[in-house]
Amino acid sequence: MRRAMPAVSVLLLPGLLLLAACSRPSADPDAAAAPPAAPAKTVLDGQLKALEKAKAVEKQLQDDKDKTDKAIEDQGG
């Protein structure tokens, strides 16, 4: 009988963990439809903002270069 106890606990423990992992659905139906919260500020926000600004400047410079190249092509150069 002493050896039967560990076998029972080995089967009982995972079953109890599975039941504990289950949760009831939210009682508030609007809880799922609520918009997500704004992301929290981090240490990298300033760096990410600078990176986005640099990408915008790079795009503007590329557009200007394309316009200049087209103007040169149109003039026969």
Whole-number average pLDDT?
81
Outline the biggest β-sheet: none
Strand-and-helix sequence, N→C?
HH
Query: Which structural class do you get from the secondary structure elements?
Result: mainly alpha
Described by its quaternary structure, the protein is single chain
Could you give the count of β-strands? Answer: 0
Global shape: elongated
Per DSSP, what share of the residues sits in E-state strands of 2 or more residues? under 5%
Key phrases:
77 residues, single chain, 2 helices, mainly alpha
Give a quick precis of the structure:
The chain has 2 helices and no strands. It has 77 residues and is mostly helical. The longest helix has 30 residues, at 45-74.
Notes on the structure:
It is a single chain. The protein is mainly alpha-helical and 77 residues long. The chain has a domain of 35 residues. It has 2 helices and no strands. The longest helix has 30 residues. The mean pLDDT is 81.
